[in-house]
Amino acid sequence: MAPLPMGVRFIISFSRDQWYRAFIFMLTFLLYASFHLSRKPISIVKGELHKQCAAADEPEPRFGGPSSSTRRSPTHWLLNNETETETDCGWAPFDKNNYQQLLGALDYAFLCAYAIGMYLSGIIGERLPIRYYLTFGMLASGAFTALFGLGYFYNIHSLGFYVVTQIINGLVQTTGWPSVVTCLSNWFGKGRRGLIMGIWNSHTSVGNILGSLIAGYWVSTCWGLSFIVPGAIVGAMGIVCFLFLIEHPKDIKCSSTLPTHPRASENGINRFRVQKQTTHSEKNGPLDPELQCLLLSDGKSPLHPSHIVVLPGDRTSSMAAISFTGALRIPGVIEFSLCLLFAKLVSYTFLFWLPLYITNVDHLDAKKAGELSTLFDVGGIFGGILAGVISDRLEKRASTCGLMLLLAAPTLYVFSSVSKMGLEATIAMLLLSGALVSGPYALITTAVSADLGTHKSLKGNSHALSTVTAIIDGTGSVGAALGPLLAGLISPSGWSNVFYMLMFADACALLFLIRLIHKELSCPGSATVIQAPLKEH
């Protein structure tokens, strides 16, 4: 008998469950990367919507449709009486002196709608099938992203049109995050959750990078396509979601936990009901730090070391979805939510304003500034993975976030100083700042949200994860809305003032974690969590 080919041996070395788990990992990664891909074009196109009134001796090359002369509003071109040449100041109404406030209003419209919608999205999402809910959101998001770009082809210069488009797009995009986090957490238990979700959360940076490159390709020639193409990609991924997304491993009779980590069986349907006392020998073992330190049963003292809660495991029973106030009472939700508010303020200020900052400071055109800004997201990929690895190894989520926030503030100050010294200094600081700014943001929105959404106080209620995720990310999105708005208001007084605002936000984020960090560093070990086997019915 001939030996099996190497490729076949590789395929059969993995179990059916492992292949399905890898498939869901990649699918949810691509689905949410497409969401971020569609958010990035607005930051790239800002440099084209408002220019520095450079003289234009000949029209820009355009793609089809009306001629360039018919596209322009009267304010788009200024006539120079001495040279009798036209001066290109951008796209009305963003060609005026208050362009930074108008562009900030676009960011604020999207992010404010996203923040408000996120609180409702988790509550709605856990009452609907994830696949249908996410598909609707992706199709609608693709449509409204493309609609923004159609303003170019139809020569629309109404600020209201662009603001309303951003508001609706922000609302429909809230379907994404609670859905993908819930789905991924259904398939992966708590073992190595920080590393797994740190790698998975790089979809944010990957989507930003792809969005920058796609939008940058057309920004100088036909900025409408910078929105239409990402919109089409999001819509296409919505169809893929409808055809292939598997919400829960039980739908195809797969295991919901990683086989090498039996403790991870807390997430999913298979839980246990009986409350059980540990033996004397079990009391002497180390207690799960997450159980003992961070996620406390009453907010004041750890769970009693002689008891464990064994959670419900009836496959046929279902629990009611958790209420909004019930999710807020989970220990750690409020602290991490407020921390994320300021962490996301910093991250989204970079997301929406970094290309324009590079254009102003390094005097690059919109395309080159967009390409250079992707280095911030490259650093974010490494920062998210590093935060996950460290928090898994130390089993201290809050302390990991706190350390990175502590280092981020002085790094931002150095960035604001050395970025004016040349391109090489800008590249180095983009990578470092991206890692330190994105690390805490990535950890809180993924591993921490999943930890809190499967907290032991929920007694196995798998419907809580979507609501908890939405509360944390919704609160963070309030900061995401405020950051770009404040940047638009502050930047006319100087970019250095914007960086001072970002450093203050990092300090506030760290402040809200002080209590949790203190508990993580000071609480002693205790008993080991033991789980009883599920009885067949």
UniProtKB/TrEMBL annotation:
InterPro entries linked to this entry: MFS (IPR011701), MFS_dom (IPR020846), MFS_trans_sf (IPR036259), SLC37A1_2 (IPR044740), Sugar_P_transporter (IPR000849)
Domain of life: Eukaryota
SUPFAM superfamilies per record: MFS general substrate transporter
Subcellular localization(s) per the UniProt record: Membrane
Domain Major facilitator superfamily (MFS) profile: start-end pairs: 27-521
Gene Ontology terms describing biological process: glucose-6-phosphate transport; phosphate ion transmembrane transport
Membrane topology: Multi-pass membrane protein
Gene3D superfamilies associated with the record: MFS general substrate transporter like domains
Spans through the membrane: 20-37, 102-120, 132-154, 160-188, 200-219, 225-246, 333-354, 374-391, 398-415, 427-452, 464-486, 498-517
UniProt catalytic activity: D-glucose 6-phosphate(in) + phosphate(out) = D-glucose 6-phosphate(out) + phosphate(in)
One of the record's GO cellular component terms: endoplasmic reticulum membrane
UniProt keyword Transport, yes or no: yes
Sample GO molecular function, one term: glucose 6-phosphate:phosphate antiporter activity
Keywords associated with the record: Membrane, Sugar transport, Transmembrane, Transmembrane helix, Transport
Presence of the UniProt keyword Transport in the record: yes
Family: Belongs to the major facilitator superfamily. Organophosphate:Pi antiporter (OPA) (TC 2.A.1.4) family.
Purpose: Inorganic phosphate and glucose-6-phosphate antiporter. May transport cytoplasmic glucose-6-phosphate into the lumen of the endoplasmic reticulum and translocate inorganic phosphate into the opposite direction. Independent of a lumenal glucose-6-phosphatase. May not play a role in homeostatic regulation of blood glucose levels.
PANTHER family: GLUCOSE-6-PHOSPHATE EXCHANGER SLC37A1 (PTHR43184:SF11), MAJOR FACILITATOR SUPERFAMILY TRANSPORTER 16, ISOFORM B (PTHR43184)
Protein name (Swiss-Prot/TrEMBL): Solute carrier family 37 (Glycerol-3-phosphate transporter), member 1
Source species of the chain: Rattus norvegicus
